[in-house]
Amino acid sequence: MNYLAHIYLSGDDRQCQVGNFIGDFVKGNRYEDYPEKIRQGILLHRQIDSFTDSHPLVLDTVAMLRPEFGRYSGIIADVFFDHLLASGFRHYSNGKSLRCVSVNFYYAMLRYYPYLPSRVKRFIWHFISTNRLMRYATYEGLNESFTIMSNYKIPALRPEETIAFLRQNHTELEERFAGFFPELEAFVENVEI
Predict the structure, then answer these.
(1) Could you tell me which InterPro entries the record lists for this protein (predicted)?
(2) Distance of CA 91 to the CA centre of its chain
(3) pLDDT for 59-110, tens place per residue?
(4) Within a domain: residue 49?
């Protein structure tokens, strides 16, 4: 899963959200250097990734993407699923507003800024100022995210082709996500950290 899902699955605890957001940037046992709730978020992030990476619907989605996107298929699947969560957020969140969740998270990132890994500090201002979480809900915003990724992280990523693939396969991807995400939510409810 990508950023939005990790934040959402942290519940309303702001420190846990921050920890879950930075989970990919904290390696090994470095999580022990953080306050308890941020540490729990980092560990929750790892549990979510483990569940997601072995789920049959996610594996099938990655396989569906592989002929077109090769080794970047897993990353693209994560971002597609964040788009599907964002675009149907009120449905998946039982009526919560994506705007409210986003703004509260941005405030949490500023409040706990000293705890952010240096790599996160380098992009978080742009992430907040461009309202990335809200932008995930639209094709245009998603295209911007893929463009950022292609410029700074994955030069071989082709944003226009990636969005075209999403448009062409939206219904099938949405069905896969609708089957997968409730199972992930149930898993997270029972995780003990």
Answers:
(1) ACP_PD
(2) 17
(3) 999 999 999 999 899 999 999 999 999 999 999 998 889 999 999 999 999 9
(4) no
The reply to whether 87 falls in a domain is yes
Q: Cα 124 to chain center, whole Å?
A: 14
Please identify which residue in the block is written with the tokens 């992009």: 123
DSSP-assigned letter for residue 138: S
Find out whether 124 and 3 touch, Cβ atoms under 8 Å: no
Tally of domains within the chain: 1
Residue 182, number of CB atoms within 10 A of its CB: 11
- Residue holding tokens 């996610």? 58
For residue 133, tell me if it sits in a domain: yes
Domain annotation covers residue 111: yes
pTM of this structure: 0.92
The residue segments making up the domain with residue 100 are 56-189
Of 4, 101, 105, 5, which Cα lies nearest the Cα of 55? 5
